[in-house]
UniProtKB/TrEMBL annotation:
Its main location: other. Keywords: Heme, Iron, Membrane, Metal-binding, Oxidoreductase, Signal, Transmembrane, Transmembrane helix. Heme c 1 binds at residues 90, 93-94. Pfam families: CCP_MauG. This is Di-heme enzyme. One of its GO terms (molecular function) is cytochrome-c peroxidase activity. It comes from Leptospira noumeaensis. Its cofactor is heme.
Length: 405
């Protein structure tokens, strides 16, 4: 709507409908009217319902938010027609109850070949100026969606042609969903609009009602326990240094900051040695895979720690996990009375122990921030308790983000 003065735009749409503008050809008339009405309806109906403390996300001007696009995107995100053999969707590796991560170290796509890194959670992905673990070319959700849809190395959804568009057109629900979002369904069902709608849906996935948020932004001073508050203070202090890389409302230093400023960084947090990375194939060495610069080996974007209590296993390769791996509350885990929270607690205890020890000797490691520090085991447990208070149950169960199928 930036380029149109609102009353004139309404008039313009009206004239379009009357078929009296000079450029109008009769046969295009209906389509254009529908499209214009679509734009008019859409441009004004999106209201960000943001938690206190959250800035307004930056949205690319070519893909403004609308309720109809988000609703179409919610369907497409969970639509198995979006995979080569109709067995998987985005939602197969991004599961709402796990904050849209999937609990695996290396998830596999439709050909059952493992991805070199693990599935990232998607809480507040609208605020990420660079996407994925370590690919600086992934500058928008619109661009990123191409990788799982069409990527060949690794194969995720394994689409190799536009046949999926014909299948979408043939499924009746998509007629009205595409028409509402983009105008006439015949022309609106195209590859770009599929990605745009999915991007809009993902931008709507805002998570900001954890007990930490209630304590910090909603002035509910009883929302955190004394132990969690101690943990928060250690997290934000100069002994543990966590906040340097996991700071701000989204717990990462890669973020849009106040308006249009974007910042993105890649770090090594010292989980592996140089020798370890040297032995890995060239799609598993972090930022180095993209830049070829030796000092970028083992560097990754600091993940947002929101909902960290459900996004295990931790790190790009799932290095830190509880003993009873994939099903903590089933089988052995259940027999031992273990729950998912126990699993997260085990794995997060390993993570904090990793940082406390200073990590592995690794050339790319930022040794001013990743170096041994002294806290007691009880203080370490306080930090783990604090991290577990970042879980936003409302986000994990909100029907707005659930699969419609
Ligand atoms: C086979 C499992 C799988 C499927 C299917 C899948 N993803 Fe992912 N997703 C991943 C993995 C693994 C990563 C990390 C990618 C990397 O670092 O290279 C990821 C990363 C992402 C990210 C980056 C998040 C961030 O914080 O930067 C987004 C966004 C995303 N996926 C969206 C999608 C969408 C949209 C689809 C469907 C079109 C999809 N994914 C399908 C596994 C999957
Ligand atoms: C120098 C920057 C830096 C500092 C300081 C830092 N981290 Fe990290 N953190 C990272 C990076 C980078 C990763 C991802 C590394 C990877 O996947 O290989 C990460 C990953 C994590 C993860 C796993 C997240 C996930 O989704 O898998 C947790 C939990 C975590 N850090 C907690 C902490 C805590 C607690 C502290 C303070 C004791 C801390 N970090 C200090 C950069 C940092």
């Amino acid at each position: 709507m930036k380029y149109f003065h609102f009353p004139f735009f309404v008039l313009f749409v009206f004239f379009l409908g009357c078929n009296i503008l000079p450029f109008q050809k009769k046969e295009n008339n209906q389509d254009m009217l529908l499209a214009a009405l679509g734009i008019l309806a859409n441009a004004s109906d999106w209201v960000w319902d943001l938690p206190p403390g959250f800035p307004v996300p930056i949205v690319p001007s070519e893909n403004p938010m609308s309720k109809a696009k988000v609703e179409l995107g919610r369907h497409l995100f969970n639509e198995k027609i979006l995979s080569g053999n109709e067995t998987m969707s985005c939602g197969s590796c991004h599961i709402q109850s796990l904050a849209f991560a999937d609990g695996k170290d290396f998830p596999a796509g439709i050909t059952n070949v493992s991805h070199p890194r693990n599935s990232q959670h998607l809480s507040n992905v609208a605020y990420m100026p660079r996407l994925t673990w370590s690919n600086p070319k992934m500058t928008s959700l619109e661009i990123q969606a191409r990788a799982p849809m069409f990527g060949e190395s690794p194969i995720e959804l394994g689409l190799s042609s536009n046949v999926f568009l014909d299948k979408l057109k043939a499924k009746s629900i998509y007629q009205s969903l595409f028409t509402n979002a983009f105008g006439n369904a015949d022309t609106a069902v195209n590859e770009q609009n599929v990605r745009f709608a999915i991007a809009s849906f993902q931008r709507s996935m805002i998570s900001g009602n954890s007990r930490y948020d209630q304590y910090t932004f909603r002035n509910n001073k009883s929302a955190l326990t004394a132990s969690e508050i101690r943990g928060l203070n250690i997290f934000n202090g100069e002994v543990a240094e966590c906040f340097h890389c996991h700071g701000g409302f989204n717990f990462t230093d890669t973020s849009f900051h106040g308006g249009a400023t974007e910042e993105f960084f890649y770090h090594s947090n010292g989980i592996h040695t140089d020798a370890y990375y040297a032995g890995l194939p060239s799609n598993k060495r972090g930022l180095f895979d993209l830049t070829g610069v030796a000092s970028d080996t083992g560097k990754f974007r600091a993940p947002s720690l929101r909902n960290i209590g459900v996004t295990y296993p931790y790190m790009h390769d799932g290095s830190f996990m509880c003993a009873d791996a994939n099903n903590p509350d089933k089988a052995a885990g259940a027999a031992a009375g273990k729950t998912k929270v126990d699993c997260a607690r085990d794995a997060l205890t390993q993570v904090v122990d990793h940082y406390r020890s200073g990590g592995q000797a690794h050339t790319a490691k930022d040794v001013t921030l990743i170096r041994a520090f002294t806290i007691t085991d009880s203080q370490r447990n306080d930090m783990v308790n604090f991290l577990l208070a970042l879980t936003d149950d409302e986000f994990l169960t909100n029907p707005k983000f659930a699969s419609p199928f």
